[in-house]
Amino acid sequence: MSIALNSPMEDISVTRIDSFTVYASSYQMNYLPSANTGAVLIGKTQYDGLGSIKSTAYFQITFESFIHSLPTGAQFESANIYFKPTAEKYYYGDTTQNQTFYIHKLSQTLTTENILGDIDNYKAPFYVSGPTIFNYKKFNYENTPIGNGTFKPFVNSVDSFSIDLDYNFGKDLFDKIVSNEYEVSTNDAFQEYLKGIVVVPDENNTAILGLNDTVYININYSYVGSDGFKVYDKKVLSTATVSYRYNNIEYDRTGTLFATLNETNNVLPAQATNNNLYVQSGTGLATKISIPSLNQFMENENIGINKAELIIETESVNYGKFPVPTSLMLMVLNKNGIPTSYVPSPFSNAAQQVNFIKGTEFGEPGKYVFNLIDYVKYVNTNRYLDTELLITTSSSSLYNSVNTFKIATENGKPKIKLNIVYTKFK
After folding, report:
1. What tens digit of pLDDT does each residue of 158-168 get?
2. Spatial CA neighbour of 139 closest among 104, 101, 107
3. Mean pLDDT of 15-38
4. Cβ contact 423:417 at 8 Å
5. Neighbours of 365 (CB within 10 A)
6. Which domain of life is it from (predicted)?
7. Which residue in 418, 422, 419, 385 sits closest to 22, CA to CA?
8. How many Cβ atoms from other residues are within 10 Å of residue 312's Cβ?
9. What does the pLDDT average to over 187-198?
10. Would you state the pLDDT for residue 3?
């Protein structure tokens, strides 16, 4: 059999369909790993329609070297904590305003959690692979800060900044170094003495900053050199193992249409939010979709799928203080509503991550376009039967950013469309 544009045969035709009904709802993800993401997120900001997002950074501190040999006559000068932005100089929110950070000592040891060992481990999403610290976790810290700083981020020009720490905190640590006391002799002993540091944003902050997850504390001292001149030097501490560097990300949706959406009540129909739907990194806010008529359509034995695209349009833009996520992915939810896998790229086992396509000057909106041929072809097999799809940000940014976008609407309905081109054999 051959097919040509001028073929007189009428037993075969190529058809396009875009009338599938897509049902959407808001979905709150749970158990988002927040340790070892490559960035510490610190700050607070407001997003219209969703309320506030706040990120607090926790980490253990250790000496770069436990060999303590300070010069004779060394005198303590000061202590400070030192931060560098991520390579991308990530930020989210209004950075033109002053931001304030508070530095506190932890009073509780940081510990990981292993939900895979629980009796309910079947509830664990596929992206949890072992013990970690999740984004909802909080640990106790001392009420009185050991330092604070107020500054303007200048994210495009500043390559680092530091905050002075309490004199007594630094002096006590310096004296222990000079005396080679037990508390500064090994990492285990030091973790008992200083369980860690938490950096808390002020409630009036307007931006969340992404900082390099290697943070330094300098114990600065001076001594008189052999030439009689004063010499300044420092003993350096830095963040310990990456398993204990994590972000506690909180959201407050009070007064919004999403106030009742949380980890316990994790699904909210689109009708309950006036068809306002969002995807937000960090907090785990996602959009769940189902296409029930797709199963029936794929039961036709006389069709062959040529192309399948899921198109998601957005009202947001990829610049300014609230940029959209650079890319999205689709997770697959089982019949119990648990993410069990992802939609792969065609002819691949890797997760399909699609980049944002910006709008045009002629009014065409920004969008994300997924190739759904894998999902469509196998929707009635054990691979995808009785599943739904979850629109989330791509895997890396899901854990180390808070970028947000709103799905566009048309005639009061979300602009999420499935287009299929198929060959029909009559």
Report:
1. 788 999 999 99
2. 107
3. 89
4. no
5. 16
6. Bacteria
7. 418
8. 26
9. 95
10. 47
Q: Where are the beta strands (DSSP E) in 215-274?
A: 216-224, 230-239, 245-252, 267-269
Q: Is 175 helix (H, G, I), strand (E, B) or coil?
A: helix
**pLDDT confidence tier of residue 118, bands split at 50, 70 and 90:** low
Identify the residue whose tokens are 């960035």.
39
Query: In terms of residues, how long is the chain?
Result: 426
Task: Collapse the DSSP code of 296 into the 3-class scheme (helix H, G, I; strand E, B; otherwise coil) and give the result.
Answer: helix
For residues 113 and 127, what is the distance between their CA atoms, to the nearest angstrom?
14
pLDDT of residue 18: 67
Domains of the chain: 12-29+266-425 (2.60.120), 39-249 (no CATH)
Measured between alpha carbons, how far is 197 from 169 in angstroms, rounded to an integer? 12
Q: Provide the pLDDT for residue 67.
A: 87
If 0-12 CB within 10 Å is exposed, 13-18 middle and 19+ buried, where does residue 66 land? Answer: middle
Residue 5 has pLDDT above 50, yes or no: no
Separation of alpha carbons 175 and 167, rounded Å: 12
**124 near 87, Cβ under 8 Å?**
no
Q: Which residues partner with 220 through β-bridges?
A: 78, 234
What own/partner pairs with CB < 8 Å and gap ≥ 24 does 261-264 have?
261/26, 261/28, 261/285, 262/28, 263/28, 263/30, 263/136
pLDDT value, residue 194: 96
Tell me which long-range contacts 294-297 makes (C-beta under 8 A, separation of at least 24): 294/20, 294/376, 294/379, 294/418, 295/379, 295/380, 297/17, 297/20, 297/420
In one-letter notation, the amino acid at residue 425 is F
| For residue 263, pLDDT beyond 80 | yes
Are 277 and 287 within 8 A, CB to CB? yes
C-alpha dist (Å) from residue 259 to 32, 44, 56, 262, 280: 20, 18, 22, 8, 15
